[in-house]
Each structure stands twice: as structure tokens, then as C-alpha cells.
Amino acid sequence: MKCNICKAEALVKLRAHNAAFCRDCFLQFFSRQVAKGIEKEHLCTREDRILVAVSGGKDSLSLLYELIHQGYDATGLFIDLGIPVSSQAARRTVEDFCAKHGLRLIVKELVEDGLDIPTVKEAIRRPVCSVCGKLKRHYFNRIAMEEGFTVLATGHNLDDEVARLFSNTLRWDLSYLASDGPLLPAHGRFVRKIKPLWRLTEFETANYAFLTEIEPHIAPCPYSPGASFTTLKGVLQRLEYAMPGRKLDFYQGFIHRGRKGFEHLAQEGGDPLHDCPECGYPTSGEDLCGVCRIRHQVAAFREAQCSAS
Amino acid sequence: MKCNICKAEALVKLRAHNAAFCRDCFLQFFSRQVAKGIEKEHLCTREDRILVAVSGGKDSLSLLYELIHQGYDATGLFIDLGIPVSSQAARRTVEDFCAKHGLRLIVKELVEDGLDIPTVKEAIRRPVCSVCGKLKRHYFNRIAMEEGFTVLATGHNLDDEVARLFSNTLRWDLSYLASDGPLLPAHGRFVRKIKPLWRLTEFETANYAFLTEIEPHIAPCPYSPGASFTTLKGVLQRLEYAMPGRKLDFYQGFIHRGRKGFEHLAQEGGDPLHDCPECGYPTSGEDLCGVCRIRHQVAAFREAQCSAS
User: Fold this and answer.
1) Are strands A19-21 and B183-184 parallel, antiparallel or unpaired?
2) pTM across the whole model
3) Residues A259, A179: Cα–Cα separation, whole Å
4) Which one of A152, A253, B157, B238 has the fewest beta carbons within 10 angstroms of its own beta carbon?
């Protein structure tokens, strides 16, 4: 198998692109796809100050590395969730990676605010995964705003995006469908959010990480055994195998055509946002935002524990 | 395994409905689903004169049989495509079935109009499947209009419907998505079109045909080896296996929520219909309708053959 570009021995075959590449030509292909994804959807410019949420996984580390490589002003943000073993290992991966490449990194420890996941898990009476997601999104946005970043980037790849789009389409969840996509514009105290890897599959980001010698943190979270959307990703993988390129077509068709219908419906209804009276960040609820409600639940739980002892 | 209703030995297990049924209770379940599908979407009433397109397959014969069973005024329509062996066998199946149950049947032979499939296949220079579909849809509508029927019913089941919806969604084909569903209202010289089996899977109609001793014609068309949407049906089957009931949810969610967005977009654009100057039936094209164009192609081909000989 020869590289399509330079005819050297190919290392990576991509059926969706009907192409095979050697190491260097694959890395160029990857860079072009990131650049195309950014330019086509007007995600960001070289004037932006970009905060990149890094978990220690291959996607987010690849994203930070590639943005720097392309000359963007990018800084990593690691949220230390305080999960025993797992958070420490992920943090060390991210810190070592940033030190090795001389990249700026902000670390936020949730334990400082009494909101580390073990504490929250004990206080609430529902699955912790959705709460963990809520906390991370809150701090991503909050730190971006407080530290003067103009945009927050996450490492979601095409498989993540297509699986979520498929899930929302299967349920015809109109409010998600109205705002889904690689760009969520800034709105009040919500910073602009972007997903520059939207054109690249998980297979492609894994190859990129391997070929650039990124060593990601790969231990699963002890509170959540599986990756999200596992079933849907399997179904979509089968579709892609039979019809190479269909995943990217589906996602691109959505952002260029399909979404228009849902945007219109969302304009008709939709909850207006207001500022949370406690933290000041926007929320669609009636009163406190989700994170401040969690904070109160944790405080109430602690108080009950103290009175009981 | 016991029947959920009467506790007799169950014959059919339906994971999507979390139920198992004996023969009689399954037939009642089937009837309820057809009735629900008709009533929920206002497909037709007992005042309608219903023309049921029957191919000889299990779905269309089951549909005709069940509509009669529920007291609807239904008549079968068989289009004899003139395909050697296959059309004769299908026609005999339909004629025997209607004779056995005392059902009214109209047979239209395309050879009368010089449009039998072997002739058309010879004259045109593109795959015959889409032309065959076009001819059938034209004659379904035309015969319904000419014979005073108020509605045309086809035997599309949930698997057919979901596969087509999925295909149109994957491509975000807005014009199809705007009008997809079990009911296409009458419009000018287009009769109302309905799909009363939309709530029932292929597995369920196959069981219904088997348990009511319907003997369908099952030989594949010699011009088309496979069923349509085979890959997508396989992918959706895997999804349904992992998440029972998801196919019906997806389809129902579409007709109740998702479609709204596309209807709005279609109103903005969309080709206006006009009457074909030759046959008088509506077409979105500029001049002759697709069927009259085929008629001209066949005539031109014959003329060329005569001059050559």
C-alpha cells in the first residue's frame, strides 16, 4: 500500500477519503482537516485567545498540540475532579505533556470549592455522570470568562459528534438539534464554544496521537465503566463500513441543511436564559443554576452528617 | 412463554412491546395496531373508497385482508408489469387470494399501454428499477382517480418506513423529509395516499400472513436481486436489537415533532406542480411528466428499430 501523495510506504488507510498516507502525509492531512473544519465553520481566528479543555485523553491532547502547531494562541485547562487514582494519573499526563512541549496550562481543583466528585457523589442521590458533566461545563465556561479567553475548544471528534447527533435525531430532540454543531456562538456570559476536530474520526485522532508520540491517559473513570454512546457508535461504525464517508456526510448535511428547520422551531419556543442569583452565570432554570443547586445539596448533606454525629 | 393476554402458550414474542402473544391475541394486537395507526394519523374512515396496491407480497395482501376484516371498503389493484415468469406468478397469487376471500380486484396490464417492463428496459438507457417505481406510482394514482377511489393504500411496514426515513435523514434530503409519513394528503389530481401498516414491523406482518394462512408471492424480481435499503435495514435491526422499540419511537417522533421543521423549509422553496400537457396528471417538471417522457422514449426506440430493419 503506497501513500497517495508521496508514494512512500503507507501507514494509515482511510476508506472514507479513499486514500492511504505515510506518516508525514497523514499528519499533513490531519492538519488540513483541522484547518478546513475551523475555516469552513468560522470557529476561530489567530486573534482569538483559545482555552482548550484537556482531560488527558488522545483527542484533547491532540487538539491542543495541533492548534499550537498551526500558530493559534492556545492554553490548556485541566479540571481536577478529585477522583482517587484516576484524576491524579490524568493530571500527571497533562502536566507532563504541557511541560514537555512548553505549553501553558491552567489546573482547577474542584476540591477547592468543595465540589470534588467523591464528595458530590456522596451528597446527591442520582447518577454522578451527568452532574460531573455539568460541573465541567460550568468551570470550562467560568474559567474562560474569568481569565479573558475568547473561545473554549473541546476535543470532540467526528464519532462523538455523529453519535450525539444520531441520538438526538432518533429522539427528534428539537432543542438539541437546533443548537448542535461544531460552533456554539457566545451568548451573554457564555463564551463561544468550538470543536475543531469535528471532521476527524476517532481512528484518525488515535493515529495522530500515536504518530506524534502523544501518550494519553487511558484508564476509564472508576464511576463510569463504558464510553458514552457505545451502542450508537457501534451501529454507526457498521453503517460507515458499508458506506464509507457516510458519517461525515451526515454531520455536514446536518450543519448545512438539516439544522435550519430546527433553528426555526427553537426560535418559536425555548426557555429564555437568566443569570443565576448566586454565581451570576446564565441558566435556563427558574432560580439557582444547576451547579449552585449541587453546592447547596452538598452543604445540606454535610450539615446533616454533622448533626447526626 | 405464556401469552400476555390469555396465558395460553405464546407463539410470537415482541421485544419492542415487551409482550408475547398466542395466535388469536397476536391477531388482535395486529388489528389494534392497524386501527391505532389509522386513527392517530387520520388516514381514512369507513366512508372512504380505498384502493389497495397489491404486489402479491405478504405486506400488501395482509393489508387488504385486514382492512376488509375491519369493515373498510377496500379493493385490490394489481399492476401487471409484464415481467416474464415473475409477473404471471405474482398475478396468479393475487387473483387466487382475492377469489378465495371474495375480494374485489382491478388488474392493469402495462403491456396494453406499451409500457411493460421488458419493453421499457430495452428502450431506456438507465437502471429500470426507478422507472418501474415511477410507472407503478403513476398508475396507482391514475386508476384511483379514474375509478373514483378516495384514497390509495400501500403495504409499507415500519421497517420500510424507518429505512427510508433514515436514508433521507442521513442525506438531510429536505424535500423528502417535509412530506414523509404515513399520510400524504390529496392535492389536485393526486389522490390521498396512506400506509396503514406503519406501526407494524416486517416480522409482525410476516407473522400475520403466516397465521392467517396468506400465501404470498416471494420470488425476487429478476431485474433487481436485492430488497431496497438492505444495508440500512441491517443497521437499524442492530439498533432495534440493542434498544427495543427505538424504530417506532424514531418514526413517531419524526411525524409528531421532527417533520415540522422541514415542512416550514419546504414552504419557503419547493417546485410548484403543473399538469402534464399530455396525460393531464400533475408533475413538478417543466414539461411532460416522467411517464409520458418514458412513453416517448419507447416510441422513439421502436421507430429507430423499424427504420434500421
Assistant:
1) unpaired
2) 0.91
3) 8
4) B238
Task: Determine, yes or no, domain membership for B195.
Answer: yes
Within 8 A of B261 by CB-CB distance, chain A residues are: 174, 177, 260-262, 264-265
Query: In sequence order, what DSSP letters do the residues of A240-294 get, joined into one string?
Result: HHHSTTHHHHHHHHIIIIIHHHHHHHHHHS-PPPEE-TTT--EESSSSS-HHHHH
For residue B111, give its domain range.
41-270
How is residue B11 written as a grid cell? 407463539
Model confidence pLDDT, tens digit, residues A202-244: 999 999 999 999 999 987 788 876 666 888 999 999 999 999 9
A209 shares its domain with A309: no
Structural domain includes residue B58: yes
| Cβ-based interface (< 8 Å): residues of A facing B | 169-172, 174, 177, 231-232, 234-235, 238-239, 242-243, 246, 249-250, 253-254, 256-258, 260-262, 264-265
The answer to whether residues B62 and B212 touch, using CB atoms and an 8 Å cutoff, is yes
Q: Is the pLDDT of residue B269 over 60?
A: no
Pairwise CA distance, residues A297 & B6, whole Å: 49
The answer to which of A20-29, B27-36, B233-242 has the lowest mean pLDDT is B233-242
Rounded distance between C-alpha atoms, residue B284 and residue B272, angstroms: 6
Residues A265 and A281 in one domain: no
- C-alpha to C-alpha distance for B53 and B135, rounded to whole angstroms: 13
Residues of B in contact with A235 (CB under 8 A): 235, 238-239, 242
CATH number of the domain within which B119 lies: 3.40.50.620
Residue B80: closest CA among B108, B121, B114 = B108
Cross-strand partners of A307: none
Query: DSSP class of residue A14?
Result: E
Own/partner long-range contacts of B259-264 (Cβ < 8 Å, ≥24 apart): B259/B177, B259/B178, B259/B180, B259/B181, B260/A261, B260/A265, B261/A174, B261/A177, B261/A260, B261/A261, B261/A262, B261/A264, B261/A265, B262/A261, B262/B174, B262/B177, B262/B178, B263/B178, B264/A261, B264/A264, B264/A265
Residue B300 maps to a domain: no
Degrees, nearest 5: CA angle A287-A291-A293: 50
Question: Mean pLDDT over residues B48-54, rounded?
Answer: 98
What tens digit of pLDDT does each residue of B273-308 get?
888 999 999 888 778 999 999 999 999 998 998 888
In whole angstroms, give the CA distance from residue A246 to residue A258. Answer: 15
Position B294 in a domain: no
Q: Which amino acid is at B168?
A: N
